[in-house]
Design brief:
This protein has one domain. Helix content is 79%, strand content 0%. The chain has nine helices and no strands.
Length: 243
């Protein structure tokens, strides 16, 4: 049904390097700390997460980003549909992260979140206690995660038949992320499922609203910037069919 060719290989490689690898950085590094090393709380969890990140970043994370960049430039003229989904997905995902942060910051201010995510990510990535080192790295990872969620959405769902459909599917995608965030590392072991051991129900309500805001903006912007020939999900995208 899907004979292998260069275009399909590039689509799947872009999905892997632009989706799975960057998105899983946080889960894998903190999963190593919390589930394997059994360190769930306190400064030690970040130090232990850095043990994993110090290998993951140079060996997997950075090479994956470079591969994605190469695919993007290569596909610009050869596979414009692939180029559009990469660029639109990454761009609107990063922009949608601003909508998420507009809600998330109230949780930081009121203490409903156990940590500010860019700080947590940055310290795990750099192993540094210096703000000028860990915060830019943490912001990059935070917005890169949002961009990667946008890329995955653009690849799997593409342009929908209506704006309503786009918003609903994008929100569904982000609520899957909410479910993962509330049960998987680092948040799950740190605060209990859905925050029941920390700030219940404020933490859950806050993150739920934040991910809905992300999904609504993601759906609207993706629907606007993708072209009519980008209609259809991942299987139609792989076939190269818009019929």
């Amino acid at each position: 049904m899907f004979p292998i060719n260069q275009r399909k290989i590039l689509i799947l490689l872009a999905l892997f390097t632009g989706g799975a690898v960057p998105i899983q950085f946080v889960t894998l590094s903190f999963g190593y700390a919390q589930l394997i090393k059994q360190v769930s709380l306190g400064p030690r969890v970040v130090i232990t997460a850095h043990e994993f990140a110090s290998y993951y970043i140079p060996i997997i994370y950075i090479p994956s980003i470079l591969i994605l960049i190469a695919i993007t430039f290569y596909s610009r003229t050869k596979y414009p549909d692939l180029f559009r989904r990469i660029v639109v997905g990454l761009a609107v995902g990063a922009i949608s992260t601003i909508a998420l942060d507009a809600v998330r910051q109230s949780g930081v201010i009121h203490g409903w979140l156990p940590a500010d995510m860019p700080i947590l990510f940055g310290k795990a990535a750099t192993g540094s206690g210096s703000f000028v080192h860990y915060y830019p790295a943490g912001l990059f990872i935070h917005f890169m995660n949002g961009a990667n969620f946008g890329l995955v959405y653009a690849f799997f769902w593409g342009k929908r038949k209506s704006v309503k459909s786009a918003v609903l599917w994008a929100t569904f995608w982000l609520l899957l992320m909410e479910l993962g965030m509330m049960t998987a590392p680092p948040m799950g072991p740190m605060v209990g499922p859905f925050g029941v051991n920390y700030a219940w129900p404020q933490l859950f309500i806050l993150t739920f609203i934040a991910h809905v805001a992300f999904g609504v903006v993601l759906g609207l912007l993706t629907q606007h910037f993708l072209k009519d020939e980008d209609k259809g999900g991942i299987f139609r995208f792989l076939r190269g069919s818009t019929s």
